[in-house]
Amino acid sequence: MKSLRAMIVDDEPLARTRIKRMLENIGSIEIVGECSNGREATQQIPKIQPDLVLLDVQMPEMDGFEVLQALKSKFPYVIFVTAYDQYAVRAFEVFALDYLLKPFNETRLEKAITRAREQIELKNDANFTEQISKLVDDLKEKSHLDRLVMKDERKIWFVPVHTIDWIEAEGKYVNVHVGKDSHLLRESLTALENKLNPKLFARIHRSSIVNVERIKELQPWFHGDYRVILSTGTELILSRTYRKRFQELIGEA
User: What is the CATH number of domain 4-140?
Assistant: First the structure.
């Protein structure tokens, strides 16, 4: 059996190591590359041209969907890896593309590899490219996130977006405020803003996004800015830069 040339794209080192170990146990697979983020993947995939890419869905700065969009028409065969996105899972099923739901075992991975090998051996590249193109277009219009995935070295947990009060930028991270709790997520504020429902979340400052259902009142401030007071008592600033878009969402301020 001819070896498949495979690449692993996942921002978690332990996840990459685990996948690599399972692939080695399955056999007839040559690991030709590993990428720790989406931008690196968009550079390495066209250069290495692997037969197969195991692509994580949720990565900081550039997720798996954005990787596919950046590759345009030069799509590799892909096994998607996801810990959270039920909408993505349904999309993959519709287009007969396999996915692995974390945490997965070696048996499930081997089944996915077998399906991928069958597709690759058929070499129906025109049909495959058409399917992936349709998937990418569909993902551009996919439902907004209904929960955020938070993770650390010990666990993965979920935060329903409707429970979020506000979100603030902290360097390469965002701090997600939910009641008295806050959670750090490795994501830029702009990238996260693009994934949230714009009818529920509004950018009010270069460093903050607010859940409009948590706003209790607005108070005029200096130089055309406003104080935004949340039901929790938290006070934020609505800057002039974002005032017009905010008005379009909730009316005159």
Answer: 3.40.50.2300
Alpha-carbon distance of 136 to 149, in angstroms, equals 22
Secondary-structure class of domain 147-250 per CATH? mainly beta
Phi, psi dihedrals of residue 74, rounded to the nearest 5° = -95, 70
Per-residue pLDDT tens over the stretch 63-98: 887 888 788 767 778 888 877 655 555 555 544 467
Token pair belonging to 9: 């794209």
As given in the structure block, the two tokens for residue 145 are 């996130």
| Token reading at 44 | 């390495």
pLDDT digits (tens, 9 = 90+) for 174-208: 999 999 999 999 888 988 888 888 889 999 999 99
Q: Which residue has the tokens 């597709």?
A: 119
pTM of the model: 0.57
CB 219 within 8 A of CB 206: no
**13: buried, middle or exposed (CB in 10 Å: 19+, 13-18, 0-12)?**
exposed
Query: Please, where in the chain does CATH 3.40.50.2300 lie?
Result: 4-140
